[in-house]
Design brief:
274 residues; 4-stranded antiparallel β-sheet
Length: 274
């Protein structure tokens, strides 16, 4: 099995979930039990959190309160359980971690072209970008504690009450929007390629230019392309500075849609010489 995340990205996601879970536990469970004087009377199980959650669930039900955070905590810990299994599988060789290469290297077709990029084969590549918002959600939950401990400068009472809520709400919306936006863009690009909506242009790369280490542009038969490693898109955006294949005069065949390169084929040197 292969997960399209680097080891560092996989670790960051797990760390963010741990931080989020511990913050919710402190702010929702521990504080709720302490306010009702329940915390000191809990019979501890071998796993302390389970005792707290059981007491929290019992107290919330007796108060006829919803169990939203109880469900959220269990969901986070279930995900973390599989995350830990992933590490064991990784070290055991059953799971491979690594960013899926944007490039494929197919055999040359009858015209001498080989495919080096295909959006349908590259997969959804922006998990880390969307998941990074989990860190800010955790920070939002931790803000009240950070203010009480003096780590963050104390603010007026209204700000202490509403700033963490606004921070969490904004970070949650950003995370959801980042995932939905990038995933929808990816699915639309794949559908455009498969449904024949993408246009095809064939010829040699002309007016090739590296505008900076992260941007490059070129023309093929009057069709202009521009992309950057730092722009989040579903299509091809791998510049030559970071190992991309585009060069001046290179014979290419490109499927493009809404100014994105959905499939990139390059003619082999042997076929070009014919």
């Amino acid at each position: 099995m292969r997960i399209c995340l680097s080891v560092s990205e996989y670790f960051i996601i797990g760390f963010a979930l741990v931080l989020l879970g511990r913050t919710i536990h402190y702010l929702a469970v521990t504080r709720y039990l302490r306010e009702r004087g329940v915390l000191a009377t809990i019979d501890r199980s071998p796993i302390r959190d389970w005792s707290d959650w059981a007491a929290y669930r019992k107290a919330r039900l007796s108060d006829h309160q919803p169990l939203t955070w109880w469900y959220v905590l269990w969901a986070i810990h279930i995900v973390l359980f599989f995350w830990m299994l992933g590490w064991f599988a990784y070290f055991g060789g059953a799971l491979k971690l690594g960013v899926l290469s944007r490039f494929v290297d197919t055999a040359a077709d009858a015209a001498g072209y080989r495919t080096v990029f295909d959006v349908a084969q590259s997969g959804y590549r922006h998990w880390a970008f969307a998941a990074s918002g989990l860190i800010f959600i955790a920070v939002g939950f931790a803000l009240p504690s950070l203010m009480r401990l003096g780590i963050v400068q104390k603010s007026p009472a209204w700000m202490q009450k509403w700033l963490p809520r606004f921070f969490v709400a904004f970070a949650t919306l950003w995370t959801a929007a980042a995932f939905v936006g990038t995933f929808v863009d990816y699915r639309r690009a794949v559908n455009a390629l498969r449904n024949g909506e993408a246009k095809v242009v064939e010829g040699r790369v002309d007016h090739y230019s590296q505008e900076s280490s992260n941007n490059e542009s070129f023309d093929v038969n009057g069709v202009k392309f521009w992309y950057s490693d730092q722009v989040i898109i579903a299509g091809f955006n791998h510049t030559a500075f970071h190992g991309g294949p585009i060069r001046q005069g290179l014979p290419v065949k490109i499927w493009h849609w809404h100014r994105q390169i959905l499939r990139l084929q390059i003619k082999t040197a042997e076929a070009s010489a014919l």
